[in-house]
Amino acid sequence: MTLNGIKSAGLRNQFSDFYESMFKGRKFSKEISFLREEFIRFGNTKWGQSTIGFKDAKGLLADEKRFISKAEYARLYRLTHPKIEKMIEDGILVQRELKIGARTMRIIDTQKTQSPSESKGLLSGRQAASQLGLPLSVLQHLRETKVFHTRFRRGYESSWHIDDVELFLERGISLASIGELDTNLTTLEAAMRFKFKDAKTKADIVTAIFDGRLTPVGRLGSKLGSLLVDKVQLEDFALKKRSALNGNTYTLEQVSQLTGIYMMAVESAVDAGLLIGNTYDGNIRVPVISVELFNQSYIPLSKIAEKLGSLAQHLWRTCRTNHIEIISLQYKNGLGKQPILSKRDEQNLIEIYNQKVNEQAPKAKECPSYETIFQNYLFALDESNEYLPCLAGAPNKAAIAETCGFHRDVFYKNEAVKNLLESFIARHQDQTSTRPLTDIEGLNKFLDSLKKEQVQLLLTSSGRINKQGIAKAAGISRKVFDRHPDAMRLVNEFIESTTQVKP
Fold this sequence. Notes:
Structural class: mainly alpha
Largest sheet: 3 strands, antiparallel
């Protein structure tokens, strides 16, 4: 009997002549029933070209039946026909085809098919997302892309099984041990709040952690959302993803971050031909390849200055002196320019700058530091029993800096000078004989003198308190009434104590 001659998928029908002669009509058929069972087992496990009928399968356990029809498999595991077809398409079910006359019958090979797994129970989508510390939309995409693995089970395909969620969570938290959050790190949960066009890109961040493109350096708890990643690495990954979403182009802000060109000068770089700009939805976007070509050919002087510990203006002056060509990009508001240097001149500029620094080093050692100059200035004040020059009751830093021969910014950038100034002020806080009065002290003294002389406060022509006149008479700044709440409090207390009518 050839395969093409089969008229039925059933084992008994395929071997009907043999079956009838051996197991039917014989007086001793009952005595050889074991041969019948072995024949059925042969058809079930070895023959592979037939199904076992219900009557013949009574002696077999459910898990012993190797070849069964799709309908019987669906009844056995309570599966729908579309579910069966999807499982065959995904390779979960392995089927064989039997040619039965003019038609083809498909049967399921249970030995090569993955059996449904048992489940601990079900979770709602929100419960699964909460347990993992991820948005539900991200979790759904992870399942669609097979990053979140689901085992074959009975029931609806959209169900969230506790076993699958726990296995996925265990895979994730095993990537890192407990750590601590610092300024250079952020959590995966925070990364999920990045603004992207869809959940797919956020899911790609999670996928990158599982496939090694992003490396977690620790975790704060027992959820995937608590995984810690390096901010710089994450921002670089996110920047590339955003670029890919927009046709491999960058926004002007992203171009500024990647090239070092100031935001106000990026459009000038496009106009100068250093970058290629295309308009999308009314906004200028720069292709990735254009940014890469710029970084290969040019560098802002500000980047070199940062590396050398200098200022871009100083390097620009050096370039002009040594006839090194500079491209200047006009700021959008027209209030300044940014110098850009060709990469081929970068090393030349660095060598010239270092040579200049080495030549000036001996001279710099001979000059006293800002700290020494200011310390000598304060010593001279103490010797002459004088106080710092003041403006509106506070030390006049511009005047002090001019006397000392340096810029007033030294008081903000040089910690040693700043500490000397604060120490001098604290030391002379109670020495009113040499220290000028603050605005509040001057106002208080002026009001006390008015009380003693029984003179009322100055009023405007409309009957209001004349703040300008009071400030002038007291020798203080008019701004004290706006900057210090105590100033108006003193004035109001004076009015109440002298029974002067407050307008």
